[in-house]
Amino acid sequence: MLGWSQQELADKAIVSLNALVRLENGKVDSRISTLQAIEAALTKAGVEFLSVGQRGEGVRLLNPRA
């Protein structure tokens, strides 16, 4: 969607690459602060997170702001 590597997302979210890889591999014991940092970085880049009640659960890209 954004074309970012794992390292780029980790850098933009200011989290370790290891934490991001663990999360992507289903190790959901990540800290809330890590999840919030990743969400904030993606939101800043124009990704909108949709809840079940908002036209279906998922994500969409509003305006890319890389």
Q: Overall mean pLDDT score? A: 89
- What's the arrangement of strands in the largest beta sheet? 1-2
Task: Quote the beta fraction.
Answer: 5-15%
What is the chain-wise order of helices and strands? HHHEE
- The portion of residues assigned to helices is 40-55%
- Which oligomeric state applies? single chain
Q: Any idea what the radius of gyration is?
A: 12 Å
Largest sheet: 2 strands, antiparallel
Provide the structure class. alpha+beta
Task: For the structure shown, list the relevant keywords.
3 helices, single chain, about 70 residues, alpha+beta, globular
Explain the overall architecture.
This protein has one domain. Helix 1 packs across helix 3. It has a two-stranded antiparallel sheet. It contains three helices and two strands; from the N terminus they run αααββ. It is an alpha+beta fold.
Summarize the entry for a quick read.
This protein is α+β, with helices and mostly antiparallel strands.
Topology:
Elements: H1 6-13, H2 17-24, H3 32-44, E1 47-50, E2 58-61
Antiparallel strand pairs: 1-2
Helix pairs in contact: 1-2, 1-3
